[in-house]
Amino acid sequence: MTKKDVPEVLTVGIEKYSNLGFGIARIDGYVIFVEGVCPGDIVKIRVGKKNKNYAFAKVVEIIKPSSHRVEPFCPMQRVCGACQLQFIDYDYQLKLKKDIVEDAMRILNELNLDIRDVIPSPMIRGYRHKIQYPVCETKDSKRILAGYYKIGSHDLVNIKYCPIQPEYCDNIIEFIRITARECGIFGYDENNHIGELRHIVIRNSAYNNKNLVILVMNSDKNLMKFKNLAHRIYTELDNIQGVGINFNSAKTNLILGDKTEIVAGQGYIEEKLCGKIFKIGAKTFFQVNPYTAENIFHYVREYISKNFDSPLVLDAYAGIAAFGICVSDLAKKVVSVEEVKDSTDLAAEIIKENGIKNIELYNMDAAKFFEKELKVAGRKYDAAILDPPRKGCSKESLDNVLKLTKGKIIYVSCNPATLARDLKYLLEQGCKIELIQPFDMFPHTYHIETVVVLNRSFE
Ligand SMILES: C[S@@+](CC[C@H](N)C(=O)[O-])C[C@H]1O[C@@H](n2cnc3c(N)ncnc32)[C@H](O)[C@@H]1O
User: How many CB atoms neighbour CB 254 within 10 A?
Assistant: First the structure.
């Protein structure tokens, strides 16, 4: 079917889910991506702009719902863009996420890939321990609003209660809505780039329920108003570990600017992983779901324990060196590399406080580190843990990791598409995939975290 033959309104059956969170329907090979549907639904849709081979569409009417539809537990689910899959039963969400990984892996043309069932999140409510709410204000009454954006827009949904985050965070945000106004602070107007409070960022500890609150400010003027607010949050609320002000006056979608000033308390929360206390700061990467994160750290630790005897381990894209620290007692040595200085500084503190002596820590770009390591150190790793950001690794970095590793590569990824691209390249270089284990880090969303073990001992 060509695009001009596709009617504007039609009835379709939803076949599967795409890795970008749309249901997929097909008419004679022409693909239609549909928002807010479940595979198995039969829906009447209105098709938007048509491209040569695909189009996007919105639901006009659900003719026959899939048997996997459930009532969402959050009353805001239909308007808020955060939990796209909450109207689908959790077991089926896991099946859809496994399908997403399988679909991405098709480019590998590998038969008999060992893709395992998705390991569920131990918590499917209250699991999200990093909250980043954009802020704005109402036009006339100047009330402060804070919440997530509606799907596909920058229209803010003022969220008073969010069941996927710890309950206490709702109290903190409500306190800020009211108290910011009392301190004379204006909410941000994104369109005109005016106003003061841009974002509220909260990191909540699953270990002790303490919170680090960061107020993101549009300029560094009127600082006293923000300091007042910060002190009131610290003194009038319970369970606050620290409050900071981050300065971000750029016209950007990035939430945090470069500079953060901690005004009260400490600039980190504590989290317990693999029996050790970690510190997580405002700008340090840490998984939003510490329960699944801990499962992944244990999984990698178990794998290393069963397959190596006192290995030399590379921990690249290390964040606060969580993988490295969790496997350090099994390893002869761990070498961790991370480009964000705040993360390596906190990793250094954690390593010192836990009395760990066998971790070398490098604060630098991983690609440059791999080059330097090849030229200077001349050592070969038994296991390389790669946990890059969503964009994955460059070919040059993968080539260098292959040269640096004599045993296994453990690739951890939050993006099945770039993971599959990088795996394809590694297979072309002779690696073999030993296992693919997805984990549900983000219940009720289409996101999925995957651990892949590759064998590179082909020489
Ligand atoms: C997905 S996170 C993984 C962090 C850590 N492994 C963990 O599990 O907490 C990716 C990390 O890579 C870091 N990063 C991004 N690009 C990098 C680069 N070019 N070189 C080194 N680190 C980088 C980010 O700052 C972030 O901490």
Answer: 9
